[in-house]
Amino acid sequence: MEQKKEKSLVRTIVWFAILLALVIVLQVFASSIPLGMVKISLTLVPIVLGGMILGPFYGGMLGLVFGVITLFAGITGADPFTAIIFNDHPVITSLICIVKATAAGVGSAFIYKAIYKKKKYLATFIAAGAAPIINTGLFILGALTMSDTIGANFLEDGQTVIYFLVVVCAGVNFLVEFAVNMLLSPAIYRVSEIVEKRKY
Known about the structure:
- This protein has 200 residues and is mainly alpha-helical.
- 82% of the residues lie in helices and 2% in strands.
- The chain is elongated and about 65 Å long.
């Protein structure tokens, strides 16, 4: 029994390390692709997978790392949009970066957990779609608290803060992130199936 627990722990650590490396590589390199005002993130795919095969805690930890990297990019100026809002609102920006990413990992994992016993493929599909919805939704809600900075730095004539955040800032990015997660959901499902089988 003890040997089985140790083997399970080792497997968890190995998978977490692999997915953590993917999160770091994807966020550091793939996030250099600009689409609209902010940069696209492909990092939600390994975060969703981590939450599915390792559980909500590890999904949240992977999300947390994603959030910290996003925040660091803003602090260093690598992400100009985040840098501007961080300059005026450092605490709120930090919270948004960390909370939205962590919640995307935890939320998608809990959604998967709630559905997978009935329909595992459907659970994978919904969890993959939930991550970008949570991530983008919390970003927009948080950014609304910084309307002063957004209005002073980004709005064009006739634009409202809501229009800017939903359409200009997050719109294209969200659609691409959502599409990527949906397109890759069969692969996510397949990997999770392989991992489940190797547990026994």
